Amino acid sequence: MDKSFTIHDLPKDERPRERLVKFGEQALSAQELLQLILGRGVAGESVAVTAQKLLSHFGNLEKLSEASIEELSSIKGIGLAKAAQIKAVFEISRRLSTQAPTYKGKKLTDPEKVYRLIKSKLKDYHKEHFYIIALNSRNHSIAEVSVGSLNESVVHPREVFAEAIKNKAASVVFAHNHPSGDPEPSENDLVLTKKLVESGKILGIEVADHIIITKDNFFSFKNKGII
Questions:
Q1: What are phi and psi of 137, to 5 degrees?
Q2: Helices vs. strands in the chain: H and E counts, helices first
Q3: Phi and psi torsions of 142, nearest 5°
Q4: Does the predicted TM-score (pTM) go above 0.90?
Q5: Is the pLDDT reported for residue 147 higher than 90?
Q6: Cβ atoms within 10 A of the Cβ of 24, count?
Q7: Other CB atoms closer than 10 Å to residue 16's CB: what's the count?
Q8: Is the dihedral of CA 126, 219, 112, 207 positive or negative?
Q9: What is the tens place of the pLDDT at every residue in 209-223?
Q10: Which domains does the chain have, with CATH numbers?
Q11: For position 101, what pLDDT does the model report?
């Protein structure tokens, strides 16, 4: 039986790790990045083949990121350990996109600008998540916080305004996602927004806008005259 092809059969400068070191991670294909995550293949199958099987089976990186541990480990060459590695990498990426305070100092008054800036943080959640941007008197972002899931219970004004009070915010912009893809507000969204606006008035913090975000569109309570 012929020896199966492995990464070590490639010239050294064509191996994914060496290419990453030399050219940077952006130069690698999705398959090469997966090879580095997986580390090695299994008997009779190189890691390159296993990585390609993952992409072929799930179709693209987005679908791969959504796969469960069980779905991943059903692929030959992907046991529970490697499935966990894959899930961990995608979770780190998700947390970076949702928690990194990348917008501090930006002036945020236009709903479309807010949508463009924050949609990457919320668009991939499969449940509704609520987000707050605290603004100073010049409408510059000074703090951001993800409050959590809106799947079953409405967030409490205490949670929502805590970060704004802590940072002495003059106003706030709220945002939450609709995984369904429909940006129109529900009755609960309307009730929540009214409650938060009233709470903000008591606290002396203006609610500048509430934006519902989907992958391809948004709804601004400010634009529609609701706020």
A1: -65, -15
A2: 9, 5
A3: -120, -15
A4: no
A5: no
A6: 9
A7: 23
A8: negative
A9: 999 998 888 999 999
A10: 7-98 (1.10.150.20), 100-220 (3.40.140.10)
A11: 45
